[in-house]
Amino acid sequence: MTISPQASETPRHSGMRDVCPDDYLTVELLCAGLAKIRLDRQQGPAEQVPGSRDPNAGLLPRAWRTGFTRLWWAGHHQTANWPQDDLDVFAACRRPMRDWPVRLALSEADQDQSLLEGGELSGFSEQAAALAAKADVEAELVENQIFAQLLATAQANGRTEAEVQRAYVELRLMHIREPVLSDLDVLRRAQRMPGTSASGEPHFKELIRVAYRFQHAPAGAILRVCDACGNPMPGVNSPCAVPGCRGSAIQRKLRTLEGYWVQHRATRRFHHDAGLVEARLFDGITELPHDLVRLEEYPGLDSWDGAVWFHRPGSASDECWLFDAKDCVSATLLGRRFNCDYQLRATRRFLVVAKHRATPAYLTDLSRELDGRVNGLEIVDEDAFIHRVIERSRQAGQRA
Known about the structure:
Blueprint: H1 5-8, H2 23-43, H3 62-77, H4 86-92, H5 108-111, E1 116-117, E2 120-121, H6 123-134, H7 142-156, H8 161-177, E3 180-182, H9 183-192, H10 203-211, E4 212-216, E5 221-226, E6 249-254, E7 259-263, H11 265-273, H12 276-286, E8 293-297, H13 299-302, E9 306-310, E10 319-326, H14 331-337, E11 348-353, H15 360-370, E12 377-381, H16 382-399
Parallel strand pairs: 10-11, 11-12
Antiparallel strand pairs: 1-2, 3-7, 4-7, 5-6, 8-9, 9-10
């Protein structure tokens, strides 16, 4: 598949790149294009991998074409004579970016990342595509459809703001804690959330169809799953593949009518796996004395991942700490796209990093990208955050 000018036309001299380019934007565009190609492949009749498409099948996604053109200009200015066509870039996507013929201004950690792992997007590429999508580079990626349907389901099952919030929390936690659901589980949940769309179809059932895939098993099923996060696992002795999860395989028996539902890749990557750090924080906070500490999950319909309320004796109001929990491959990409919501009042605001990511270099890169753009935000790893919450609760207990 060769695309020259337009998508990969040899670009005309037009005064482009007279300013310093943003190489992270180039990478995000390429990743968004790869994600769109994967989505087209999943919705198409044949299973293909990027780089094997019929050249007559139509243009590649706009994000890929733009990213390719920016990469071509980078090579032109570095006299690298690369890339010649799209196949050059597809091949490079399977190698660490520090090995590309064109030098990109990325952090040391990100230069070691590749964009493809076999025929699938790498974790870095998945994150970059999602962040690019938030900038409306390529709309309607699968993970966006899941979130939109989740929100629609919550809104259809609440008459008041508090009821909508409760429904939203239940659905978000379902995605984190229930990667596998029997059809009996789905029926029970659908009865509790009967809200329908204009067509009369329950929103909850549509959410399940968007976020999960159905497996026929009319006589029940015995699955091998992770005892810590619940994800299906391939082998008895295989460690869990989810970053930061230390679980091992166990057997789980399911009672079914016709079968069960399993989260597909996008749901696992962006809702389940990424949400495990939130779940660990929720579990740690809820173990503390409820008369001193109160947890609110996803306040303001996910404006923040959580709010921790500390009782203040003699005060008319409690002290509030807001936190967002993140498990991202690239600290630089996270820092570039993270926005702090100041609408909810709080005494302190935290960006909590998954402990398996929080190396000194990672925290340095993240702080550098946030510096001067986001104010009043404390960056800590999950263990440090829980420790601070415990210490603050002890102070509240001593003053009670």
